[in-house]
Amino acid sequence: xxxxxxxxxxxxxxxxxxxxxxxxxxxxxxxxxxxxxxxxxxxxxxxxxxxxxxxxxxxxxxxxxxxxxxxxxxxxxxxxxxxxxxxxxxxxxxxxxxxxxxxxxxxxxxxxxxxxxxxxxxxxxxxxxxxxxxxxxxxxxxxxxxxxxxxxxxxxxxxxxxxxxxxxxxxxxxxxxxxxxxxxxxxxxxxxxxxxxxxxxxxxxxxxxxxxxxxxxxxxxxxxxxxxxxxxxxxxxxxxxxxxxxxxxxxxxxxxxxxxxxxxxxxxxxxxxxxxxxxxxxxxxxxxxxxxxxxxxxxxxxxxxxxxxxxxxxxxxxxxxxxxxxxxxxxxxxxxxxxxxxxxxxxxxxxxxxxxxxxxxxxxxxxxxxxxxxxxxxxxxxxxxxxxxxxxxxxxxxxxxxxxxxxxxxxxxxxxxxxxxx
Length: 422
Known about the structure:
Structural class: alpha/beta
Number of helices: 13
Order of helices and strands: HHHEHEEEEHEEEHEHEHEEHHHHH
Largest sheet: 7 strands, mixed
Shape: globular
């Protein structure tokens, strides 16, 4: 081959786009099989011939779209005796429909259904009467303050007290398994809705891994251990975000309308504790925060000057509008809000919780006298007074981040042995 042609071919080959290792692994990675889809064939002995109570919500569906409650009720070798869900019908989280009473009967299966979302988070002995197996199947969002990982602790505690088997059907951490971040909950915040035990704001684990951690580290109240079995996923790895699993997106809650809203929620949920809209009623809940009085352009300059990895901020305006799925009008409904919009530019480097803390810092720096705190909500979201104390003391975001590094490093070290996935 003439030298000139060889050189031309070499130039063309060098100019062609080359897939990165991350791109290659994503394109060849198999679809993830959820724990629920392995129960009836590979792990049937865990429930065969048993009286089963299911802890789930609308996310507890099999690959064919059917709800696990219906599959259990129809199974000839299983006796479904109770359902533990949230405020709504166990198959839905539509805020526009009437909420279930705390205790009711499931219309489709006929079995008693109890809410663990309201006054009672831990099943009572009466609710567990005759139960052999507590089966847990809920899609988590990766945040301690999203109540389901704390409900997991409560149901394990109740099961340990009565010698009931716990089976966790594992599902992915949608934010991946490497992003643990934030303050670890203080002991004063334990055994509550927003923090069952000492885990950070973003825990970086799956429900099955957390269950193993609760058990192995004796974190259940009283130091008890449950008879725990985890049905693991097949095909999931810690670097996978939910949209890389091949599974369809089901909104964890009505305001988490897209996967990008969930990524932002992992930090901007902190705005639920102040008089700033977290974007409910806008086109991008949690990706957009604001208030009519917010100096949003000045805040955006402060935030972009921080040069946080993988994110940029932009000034925007929005008018919150009540939607059918809203239980009540969103904050500042009908008013023009001056907002800050979050743009994730590099998902591989972004740290969502730090983004939320930095945004709260910027608003506090500009509007200390106008910011009103809901202490009960902040207590649930932060699980420590240290975040607010550092903000009020004028600490920078870098100083706040550094304040949790030692405890976060310790959590990562003690939780690693309970990981199920590479």
